[in-house]
Amino acid sequence: MIVESTYSRFVADMQAGLVCGVTTEDGQRFPIKPVERNRSWDMENYDFGDLLDPLHSDFLGLQSLRASTFHRRPDRAYVCRLSGTTYLFVKRFDVRGHHDDDDDARFYIYVRCADGIWESADNLLLSYEWLIILADNALANRQRIEVQQTARCRLPSRTVRTPGSVQGATVIRLNQAIYARHNGGGHGSEKRPHVRRSHTRRLRSGRTIPVRASSIRGGSRAGSYVVKK
Asked: What's 59's DSSP letter?
């Protein structure tokens, strides 16, 4: 069967036991607990591409951030690319078995590593929670975005709570008319062609993630370098 979106590929990997946690002491991978793997993953999911990347020329920006609406239901998953690396942000309510089981939202972060394995990266929550808020608000205030719904995606297997398919990804794009008016109205200028060089990002677990070089608005490729802290 065909897996047709980044999110459905993640769900298939979760079902197959290919999503891992990482120890904080030595960065060793370990299998995700069955209670997490067997939760329902058939939820609304949105692919923002590069729009949540603050370093990208098409970043939605703080203009979309009005009020904190991230506590709104329903459960949602947000796929995005940050400096070329794929991340998945998950927002859940009513997480049974949680040590503080209440009606508030729970957030989970997963990152797709260079070897294709998804790793839990909840240690990045303090750094990226504001992007989840930004994504929620972009959907609540859609003046700057366009949405394109895709068909349900089939999965190669199933768990107790996830059916043989999941909701198709809703692809998020900039509203080009609003974006052009924004760039031409004195609130900013269009980015010049340039290159975002390749580099490596070190997670708190100690694992490094390679970030590919990318061309912004037709800029030419460049070599790689390592960011040292």
From this structure: -
DSSP percent split of the chain into helix, strand, coil, nearest 5: 20, 30, 50
103 C-beta neighbours (distance < 10 Å), count: 8
- Enumerate long-range contacts of 137-140, CB under 8 Å, 24 or more apart: 137/64, 137/65, 137/66, 137/67, 137/69, 137/70, 138/48, 138/51, 138/60, 138/64, 138/172, 139/46, 140/66, 140/69, 140/72
Tell me the torsion sign for CA atoms 38, 43, 47, 53.
negative
pLDDT in tens, 35-67: 888 888 999 999 999 999 988 888 876 555 555
Q: List the chain domain ranges.
A: 6-175
Is the pTM higher than 0.85? The answer reads no
| Tokens describing residue 64 | 């979309």
Q: Give the alpha-carbon dihedral of 21, 18, 163, 129, to 10 degrees.
A: 40
